[in-house]
Design a protein that fits this description.
Elements (H helix, E strand, L loop, with lengths): L2 E2 L6 E2 L8 E5 L6 E9 L2 E6 L6 E3 L4 E6 L3 E2 L4 H15 L3 H15 L5 H17 L6 H13 L32 H10 L5 H17 L19 H11 L2 H11 L8 H13 L7 H17 L5 H17 L3 H14 L1 H4 L23
Antiparallel strand pairs: 1-7, 2-8, 3-4, 3-7, 4-5, 5-6
Helix pairs in contact: 1-2, 1-3, 2-3, 3-4, 4-6, 5-6, 6-7, 7-8, 7-9, 9-10, 9-11, 10-11, 11-12
Length: about 375
């Protein structure tokens, strides 16, 4: 007699070759009939009837299994339900409820290579980007990029706009951050991150450099030669070069980026505008500081809808920059726009107490070893 996988005492068996197993799929997809060969975190591996190649159905797609049984399946019932609930909540834009489920699932699937792991990693990435948590999104992005390269013919989130571009970069996740909150822990995670995929390891290295540069950790040196081997990653290389350059080299790095702006896709131009805008220092010439403000103002003017996180950074830095130049009315206007459009982010940073004063640093005392 056939019984449901989600029955409390369900077991799966391999009996004889003629026995037919059934996977009942979610989302109105047809039932799969054949012989189930394996069940693990990746999903259910089945050889369909009249087929010569087996296939794996990820857990978020499995409603139930009907089979002649011997191998215990009860341990996967909750896992399958949680995968489905997380994905379905994300697909109906319920990011808040989906994120906690994905966070728990990511602890289990991180480092694995299969469709279910991709559903989890990309789901967590999308949720954290939606919440404006661009620090917490970095590791899910690295795993998503790795899995998108490793898992062939994936159908995960096929109905949603792609979250990665063709290079594996995430247009909504530049190596730039509002403040230092969480960057010490992110650096530790990136320092220990290891992937056999050279491109993904290069991503991790580049973002580690950007974290160090953001925190003005001048003494730390990280080899970024891998970026030179990837010409399609020019925007990442140029942005990181600008951020990590010493005062003497920063002007040259900015000059190298500007001629390339017109050839970049819109999201990469937004990255470039902010990198050029935030790379000036109080010791730079007045003309350079004014040019930086012009770079920053491009972002809220042109990319507000497509690059909200970068728009928030630009508005905050415009307020600080105008204040430093003594333009109190402009500083106040940009600060109010930042608070109005990004109240959640505004609650995480220390704003200037008066428009005429530069913003106080919110950098934690702890330094990166």
């Amino acid at each position: 007699m056939k019984i449901s996988m989600f029955a409390f005492a369900f077991v799966l068996a391999v009996v004889d070759v003629a026995a037919a197993d059934v996977i009942v799929r979610r989302g109105g997809e047809s039932r799969l009939v054949g012989r189930i060969e394996k069940v693990d975190d990746a999903g259910v591996r089945i050889l369909p009837e009249n087929a010569s190649i087996n296939m794996v159905i990820s857990w978020d797609r499995v409603r139930s299994i009907e089979a002649e049984t011997v191998i215990s399946m009860a341990e996967y019932a909750d896992f399958a339900t949680q995968c489905w609930r997380a994905r379905s909540r994300l697909e109906r834009n319920d990011h808040a409820l989906a994120e906690e489920l994905f966070r728990q699932l990511f602890e289990r699937t991180r480092g694995q290579t299969h469709e279910t792991a991709l559903v989890v990693a990309e789901g967590l990435l999308r949720c954290r980007l939606a919440r404006g948590d661009n620090v917490g999104a970095v590791l899910p992005w690295l795993e998503t990029a790795r899995l998108r390269r490793a898992v062939r013919d994936s159908t995960a989130y096929a109905l949603l706009p792609p979250v990665l571009d063709g290079t594996g970069l995430c247009p909504s996740l530049p190596p730039l951050w509002i403040d230092d909150r969480g960057l010490v822990e992110l650096h530790r995670q990136l320092e220990s991150y290891a992937s056999d995929d050279e491109l993904i390891q290069c991503f991790a290295t580049a973002f580690r450099v950007a974290v160090l540069a953001h925190r003005d950790e001048q003494g730390a040196t990280v080899d970024t030669a891998c970026l030179l081997k990837q010409p399609e990653l020019e925007i990442l290389r140029l942005v990181v070069e600008i951020l990590k350059s010493s005062d003497g080299d920063r002007m040259d790095a900015r000059a190298a980026l500007r001629p390339r702006m017109d050839s970049l896709p819109p999201w990469a131009r937004a990255w470039a505008h902010v990198a050029l805008g935030v790379s000036v220092t109080a010791g730079d010439p007045l003309s350079a500081r004014r040019e930086a403000l012009v770079e920053l103002v491009h972002v809220p003017a042109m990319y507000r809808d497509t690059q909200p996180y970068l728009t928030a950074i630009a508005l905050l830095k415009l307020s600080e920059g105008c204040s430093a130049l003594g333009d109190a009315p402009a500083a106040s206007a940009f600060a109010q726009e930042f608070k109005s459009h990004f109240p959640r982010l505004a609650g995480t940073v220390e704003m200037p107490s008066a428009a005429s004063q530069p913003a106080a640093s919110s950098r934690p005392v702890e330094s990166i070893p």
